[in-house]
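Page 47, continued from p. 46.
Same chain as before, 267 aa.
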Amino acid sequence: MTEARGSAGQSGTTHARHTPGTPSWVSLMVHGLAATQEFYGALFGWEFRPGPQQLGPYVRALLDDRDVAGIGRLPPDRHLPIAWTPYLASDDVDLTAETVRLCGGTVGVGPLDAAEAGRLAICSDPSGAVFGLWQAAAHLGTDITGVPGTPAWNELLTFESVNVAKFYETVFGYEEAAQVSTDVDHVTLNIDGRPVAGIQGVGNSLPRDRGPHWMTYFEVADTDETLAQVVQLGGHVLRAAHDSAHGRVATVADPEGARFSLIQDPR
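Result:
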């Protein structure tokens, strides 16, 4: 977990248009859409409504009628890693996607319109970690943070932070705050002095079946109770609950293997 979890909103914060470069949405593509809705609905109290038809079978997850995240269904013949993907805000997805290419990343999907909701692209950085771009129109993105069941933080887990941090700084204009020590390789990405995401270099500790990837942290009221729920609902505990400077944290996987972390705010 980052050493600068300052970007999490205050309780029940509602968002206007997201500043370019900030994580504005998280989305998950799975094979069993109905079963996945049941899992996250029971775990986080999410309700679901249909999303843009251009995205195929896709639903928006809501808390108190406010958008939190999206879940879509993969085509049966697509055998991609099941993973939560953060979308970074952009005022011009086409220009940002071209910058991604020029800086050594790749654009795998789009840019394309999602009806009146906005415009998107799915990219990967030079290390292979997948992330999205979102240019908001009618749909601004995640509309509430700071309460249980909402995204609290996004962190890139990669081999080492230096080179990939330069990529994100060049594409999005982040300010870098590096934590330099013999045993910690961590960079916090800031916009206007505010931490919005992190990059953690973990060397050979990366899962062999995943490689570099983004990790989304969801806020929970009680990490230990939520861990028990994850197991009861068919998920798995990957890293047991432990205390950090920013709250009690654990890492889990849903029944299809999508990894995410839980964090209990210490306040």
